Amino acid sequence: MKFLVSIKMVPDVYAPFQIKDGELIMDGDRMVLNAYDASAVEEALVLTEKYGGDVEVVCVGPAKASETIRKALAMGAAKGHHIVTTGTENLDSGSYATILAKFFDGQEYNILSFGKQSQDTDSGLTGGMVATKLNLPYTTNAVGLDIEGDKLVVKRQGDTGQEMIELPTPCLVTCSNDMNEPRIPNLKGIMASKRKPIDTINLEDLGIDDSDLLAVSMVTSYEYVPARAAGKKFEGEPEEIAAKVAQLLDTEANVL
Amino acid sequence: MSTLLTYVAIADGKVKRSSLEVLSHCKHLADAGGYACEAVIIDENPERFTDVVQNYGASKIYTIKHSVFSEHHNVALISALSKALGAINPSVFAISSTESTKDVLGALAANQNAAVVADVASFEITEDGVSAKRPMMAAKIIGNVEVKGSPVFISVRSGSYDLVENPTSAEVLSLDFDIAENDLRSTLREIITATGDTIDLNEAEAIVAAGRGVKDEEAKNLIAELAGVLNAGIGASRALTESGVYDPSLQIGQTGKVVSPQLYIAVGISGAIQHVAGMTNSKVIVAINKDADAPIFEVADYGIVGDLYKILPPFIEELKKIKN
């Protein structure tokens, strides 16, 4: 099976940030491989190690995103495709889907794999959009993958339980980070990644111009999450404080 | 007059409360702005829910009926929603955010060439679309989003709006729908569910959530007993669902379920940002943890510093007394 895994460079959600006049100020150097995408790469590697096949990654992002691609190559992917943006465009989920669908259209693959969402924006729309544009069977929020013959078998976390779904290939799947612990690249992997190919693709190469990418949604400003009112903390004799809080839930919070 | 359409989801033979929250908000927007408030119910037996739905203000209720909707199939749901959207042509299409709707929202928007915004905490109608607030960066910040277009598709986090009853006498219209098994394009082999009666966390009024501090059967029993007294759903942190102590369906957090009950009791949960992202909208938060510096206390209304084995038994006893 040949996997093409879509990966994204995102800000580290642990990095300190400030909001000034509605603008988000973060350290531009604290960029990481999206955690959900890392799980998608890991699972593709595990399955191809077991059953044979190839893993390539594709990343839409500015020049700096080549570092994110190197990370995936160091994990074990064979090749990277870097679709270069300036980093100043306002791209929404629909813009990414347009770019990726054009790219995949010219590629050979059995399985397109995505993280189920970006850890910075948490929208989770792009995978489904690409599946529609390419008319592929798909599913989302995978917590386990396996291959049976020419089928992909997905364990999907649904609302009431885990759905076991069989998809014919070619197909598309989006992955949760609950399915594995992505490997930390070792020195050998890191050295090898430097010799692995990354082909650089411009939007013009894909026949895309700015009018194709008009974002329909745009973050106009940021604000802090309203702080919760300071709570009460109880320390002391377990019986006393436990009973005290139970009573307050009844008389003060009125939630019993 | 343009229409605000709400998709009313059914689960376990009941209308999802979160759908009615969205419908309540759409009714409010419709009254304020002079729009029509309409709803679509998709189920194997949708007529049985029209009474509930018209109680929340929909003036027209469309029903789509098919046995395929006894389980979640993304192709079938997209096909049915496309049918409804084609017939109704709304300016705004709103749904509550669940694992089932997350599975179809992006694909449906691409399919209908609609503007879309996912997982908002609130939204308003603007001249050329919708403005919304949505939690970002693991719910550490709020982004103000402008969405331009018509239609705009929008999904709303559960607990974002209160239920407001608004009895209306709705016109009920059924839309023809059929789908062949071959057209589903995937096969749902089985659904593995947690054993026993579990309360849907998205709908629960109270939740008791277990974290790393819950290490053995004794602690699990205390969690179950506490949940029983409060008629609460049981949730868990990622640490406990990954290690298999609790079923994966019970995971609360950025990766799992985002919940907003009236009462959330976090037991032995340290409060990693990914967990807090999934529960910070709860009305009242109680944290029980033996580490006085655990970050969970920063979001708790009532923090109890102590060993859960010593705290929970008297806590449960006192709650039983109050409940009686």
Q: What is the element layout, followed by pairings?
A:
The complex is a heterodimer of chains A (256) and B (324).
Chain A: E1 2-7, E2 9-11, E3 17-20, E4 23-26, E5 31-33, H1 35-51, E6 54-61, H2 66-75, E7 79-84, H3 93-105, E8 111-115, H4 126-134, E9 138-148, E10 151-157, E11 162-168, E12 171-175, H5 187-193, E13 198-202, E14 217-224, E15 232-234, H6 238-251
Parallel strand pairs in A: 1-6, 1-8, 6-7, 7-13, 8-12, 9-12
Antiparallel strand pairs in A: 2-5, 3-4, 9-10, 10-11
Helix pairs in contact in A: 2-5, 3-4
Chain B: E1 3-8, E2 10-11, E3 14-15, H1 17-33, E4 36-43, H2 50-54, E5 60-65, H3 74-88, E6 92-96, H4 99-112, E7 115-120, E8 122-126, E9 129-136, E10 141-148, E11 152-156, E12 171-175, E13 187-192, E14 206-210, H5 217-230, E15 233-236, H6 238-242, E16 263-267, H7 273-276, E17 284-289, E18 302-305, H8 308-323
Parallel strand pairs in B: 1-4, 1-6, 4-5, 5-12, 6-11, 7-11, 14-15, 14-16, 16-17, 17-18
Antiparallel strand pairs in B: 2-3, 8-9, 9-10
Reported by name, the CATH topology of chain A is: Rossmann fold
Strand content of chain B: 25-35%
Radius of gyration of chain B: 21 Å
Briefly, what CATH class of the largest domain in chain B? Answer: Alpha Beta
Q: What letter string, H or E per element, gives the SSE order of chain B?
A: EEEHEHEHEHEEEEEEEEHEHEHEEH
Q: Order of strands across the biggest sheet of chain B?
A: 7-11-6-1-4-5-12
CATH superfamily of the largest domain in chain B: HUPs
Characterize the largest beta sheet of chain B: strand count, sense, and whether it forms a barrel.
Answer: 7 strands, parallel
Taking the sheet with the most strands of chain A, its summary is: 9 strands, mixed
Structural class of chain A: alpha/beta
Give the class of chain B from helix and strand content and strand pairing: alpha/beta
Q: Low-confidence parts of chain A lasting 5 or more residues at pLDDT below 50?
A: none
CATH class of chain A: Alpha Beta
- Structurally, how many domains make up the residues of chain A? 1
Overall pLDDT metric of chain A: 95
**In total, how many domains does the architecture of chain B comprise?**
2
| Strand runs of chain B, count | 18
List the strand order in the largest sheet of chain A. Answer: 11-10-9-12-8-1-6-7-13
- The amount of helix of chain B comes to 25-40%
Strand content of chain A: 25-35%
Overall average residue pLDDT of chain B: 94
